[in-house]
TrEMBL record:
GO terms for molecular function: acyltransferase activity, transferring groups other than amino-acyl groups. It comes from Rhodococcus wratislaviensis. Keywords: Acyltransferase, Lipoprotein, Membrane, Transferase, Transmembrane, Transmembrane helix. The chain crosses the membrane at residues 6-27, 39-57, 72-92, 104-125. It comes from the Bacteria. This is Apolipoprotein N-acyltransferase in lipid-linked oligosaccharide synthesis cluster.
Amino acid sequence: MTDLSLLSGPIPLLVAATGAAGGVWLLTGRAGWFRSGAIPLSAATAAVLTGCLWFWVERVWRPLPDPIPLTVYLWAALALWAVTLLVPRILIAPRRVWAATVSVLAAAAVVAACAVQVNLFFAAYPTVGAALGFEHVTRIDFRAVPPPTPTPISGRPLDSIWTPPADMPRSGAVTSVNIPGDRSGFAARRADIYLPPAYFTDPRPQLPVLVLLAGQPGQPKDWLTGGRLGTTMDNFAHHHGGLGPVVVVADATGSTWGNPLCVDSPLGHAATYLAEDVPTWTKAHLQVDSDPGGWAIGGLSLGGTCALQMATNYPQTYPTFLDLSGDPEPTLGDHQRTLDAAFGGNQAAFTRVNPLDLLAEHRYPDSAGVFVVGSHDDELKPSIRKACDAARQAGMDVSYTEVRGGHTFAVWAPALATEMDWLATRLGLTSS
């Protein structure tokens, strides 16, 4: 059951049909006051509540740099209509307990159908299991991660000198651990770390590292649910003798709704955390390639913006990057708000760390990256192309790719899988 898709197949259709039936039940009532008063009043109430929600989120709170799509608010309005209609629908049958029970179930069905439609838009939960919090990965305690081996296998490309042992595990494993902000003071949440099958061998190959970042709102676990990280990495390892990068899914925001803009500012020293704390801790606690050529950083949405910032501000640490639907500059939604919150209103301070300004002023002949955007992400595509052109003019070896879809995991999950061959060659895992 946990493998059933929430994005295609029978489940979305079944939930939609059940929600439609629930909606019909809620709207059918014989009392005249119900048809002429309760139904339009509940619709008006849902509309007002949704309008207030939109105003609070988009004009007051403004937690996201980009507006939430109108479609999401429309589905929220429909769910609220079902909830507000529930009480009068029950009142028209006060002595019929079964009717009240059916009404509650009908409202729940409508809400569930709306939630599935929103999930279809973002593709954040691809399966029933993902929505319930189940992961298709082997979880181990960090204390169970095997210690360093005395004679690790090193060389480039690794696949030319690596022979997988017979007792190597068939799949990798994920562990969770706190990576402290010793130098930055950044209060990060626990990181998820994927270790490929080859990490559990002796002798062990000296594996490269991919630091991955989630979006906002988000958490590191998003890469394991909507991003299908475990499946992608296990599939790659299966076709490459158990080899794959060690993937550190680090926390760049500190909270679900936080946005420290991946810079060092009053919002938090996220830049130092990612550029110094994460690499230092990883090299000290995991047996990985310490050469910068074996390190890459990538992310989706806000995480993609952050990956580009790291690649331009700290090319000596991250000479390779994956920018999946990231904005070309750090932003809280508008430029002045960004300046005021993170840079004290100082445009020069912003310019010193802004990727486009750095790409215009410096050369990056040793850096390479991939820019990916959804083919339907019309608002972001022009700026992604602009960033890619600027990177190419600055000497970076970069490419631009469009994946069918919008600003969702339906783009980001397959993009990571598609770019793994290029990334593995770049990081010295494979020859081609």
